Amino acid sequence: MSNTDELGPIDYVAVGFPDGKVGAQVMRRLLDLVDQGVVGVLDIEFLSKTSDGVVAIVASDVATDDGTSLAEFEGASSGLLDADDLARLGSDLAVGAVAVVIVIENLWMMSLVRSWRDNGAVLLGDGGLSADDVVAALDSTEPGE
Description:
The chain has helices spanning 24-35, 83-90, 108-118, 131-140, and strands spanning 10-17, 21-22, 39-49, 55-57, 63-64, 98-106.
């Protein structure tokens, strides 16, 4: 896409699987969201940590809990995640665990933005909030804390 105004909000999530097996149902749910046009996958990386502490990309070596192939996700790489990002995100992994790092475009938002634009609105900005920041803000507003 040549016009960044035509992109939905971009988010990422990193999820660890301590037993080293990615939940097949979880990955099928991601594919369902892609098929429904809710999200677009810009980048997906499967990580593990070697016995000497190095975080490595292991896409073709990852197993699911039911043996489902993850080949559909190979090649989904936008370049938004660099080696430093992946090393930081995988730093807390235990040896033998696997992490999935996903960068998504929130496509569901685009119909709302288009509707606003059709009615004269101008997009002034967008961005994400970390879950930790949201929890901290909510906790600070609770009475007696």
